[in-house]
Amino acid sequence: MTKDPFSHHPELAELITRPEDSFFRDFSITKLANILIDRGLPTGWWHTDEHRNAIREEALAEHRSEDLWVFAYGSLMWDPAIQFTEVRRARVEGYQRRFILKDIHGARGTREAPGLMAALDAGGECEGLAFRINREAIERETDILWCREFIGPAYFPVFVSAQIGEDTVDALTFVADYDAELIEPELSRTEQLDYLANGSGFLGFSADYLRNIARQFRLLGIEDDEVEELLRELNLLEQ
Predict the structure, then answer these.
(1) Residue ranges of the alpha helices (H) in 21-137?
(2) Model pTM score
(3) Rounded to whole angstroms, how far apart are CA atoms 106 and 93?
């Protein structure tokens, strides 16, 4: 009998998109290019398939012999797109969630009206979710994951120590790449709120991105002052 992946968090079963229903399950450069061309947005800013696969091979070189944990701190928490055998609440020390990814490429914002998303940055700690990928599925599922998280410059992959219950596991995650144009670590609060309130694109509204994070946290009992404060200020702005 297959173990229920939501056995530890049944409250999430209806709030995490099924992989087969995810926009990202068949994501590719071709799919992205077609969307951007249809919207009259710039193309060609992404990594080549060869470069992306080389980075994936390097990152996973010593992590294919057992099940793989993936730490999620943003949209992966409700739409991971990967087939997973278990999802758990997790905490990572030495990294923090920061709203410093200025989206200009069309997902949740454009150059004319940027959107805002979270990145994992050095310092502090971060709570989120960890998804477990069966060892036999690592190749297929990480290919899908890299097409989503490493489609273009923004993050780089690292393995971090994640606390899951009483256990500590090595988990793959994606952290802010300060060399990427999208990462702006010195955004003011005014800029953050402007991008959240006005950014939108083919993945939806930046405001909904923030609200989805807050929803998952409330269900899990996770307290994140930055998320709650941004949401409070955004709600006031939109009144």
Answers:
(1) 29-38, 49-60
(2) 0.95
(3) 32
